[in-house]
Amino acid sequence: MQALTILAPAKVNLYLAVGPRRPDGYHELVTVFQSLELCDVVSLAPNAPFSVVYEPDLGIAQGEDLVSVASAALAERLGREVQGAFTVHKRIPPAGGLGGGSADAAAAMVGLCALWGVPTDDPNVTDVARAVGADVAFFLEGGTALYVGRGDTLARRLPNPELDVVVVNPGEPVPTAAAYAAFDRLLSVPVPPVEPLVDALANASRDIGGLLFDSLTEASAGLVPSVGDALAFLRSEPGVLGAEMAGSGSTVFALCADAEVAEAVADRARAGGWWAAATRTSSAGARIVVSPDYGA
């Protein structure tokens, strides 16, 4: 088999309600995941010993990154020999709430499934994905979906909105554990119901922007004030339909009236010293592409 190119999409949470801590230490979540066209690009050379290289290097110890963990776990579950040289071309800001590491893990699993002739919806594959990371299973299919549990259990697929999006990363990470710990110290955060967002998605309504919600925003902005600064910037920009934090941060995102608005907002964010990208919502998860025409 020839080398494979696999796209690993970023995600945002259109809705993230954090509930009480569970006996296993995780919090009960209700979240609406949305995949984006912004992606990492994972190359797999199948006829080579197993290895993983990140460009640029993330400084993660060999074997501890999620691509390595997912590949080894899938090989063990399927009784296979882990194989292939992976190169992960990073475009998604790491540790920013956009799910890049989980998407890369899902991309590796998609590539190995292609090598081994295993469908990605095989229960063994989805079980491994859920064990590797709470949102890895989502990235096997992508699109728009309501997940519950610790964010790893699919409740229902939702219609995919066609929206222009700008993502902004202020450059300071928010450790996930710290964000949840700060959330636990806050007084109860009012949680709107998810049903109005689900209805807006079903009706392709532009009201989606006003229904974005993330329970962790206050906690994360308290830890890293630039999260609040970036959100305030997005919410003040003309043509922005709504803005919220992605996951536990520190990346924030905005739904925009059109592509021109998204590009203009991204340009102004970069001029202010932040990393930013204009992108669109996507109906796809990690996927193999024959001709890698995925932009600059």
Structure description:
The chain contains nine helices and twelve strands. Strands 1, 2, 3, 4, 5, 6, 8 and 12 form an eight-stranded mixed sheet that branches. A four-stranded antiparallel sheet has the order 9-10-7-11. 32% of the residues lie in helices and 29% in strands. The chain starts with a strand and ends in a 7-residue tail after the last strand. With 296 residues, it is α+β, with helices and mostly antiparallel strands. Helix 1 runs parallel beside helix 2, helix 1 (66-78) packs antiparallel against helix 3 and helix 7 (217-223) packs across helix 8 (225-236). Strand 1 (4-21) and strand 2 (27-45) form a beta hairpin. It has helices at 66-78, 100-116, 123-132, 136-141, 176-185, 195-202, 217-223, 225-236, 259-271, and strands spanning 4-21, 27-45, 51-55, 85-89, 144-148, 153-158, 164-169, 213-214, 240-245, 252-256, 275-280, 287-289. The model has no long low-confidence stretch (mean pLDDT 94).
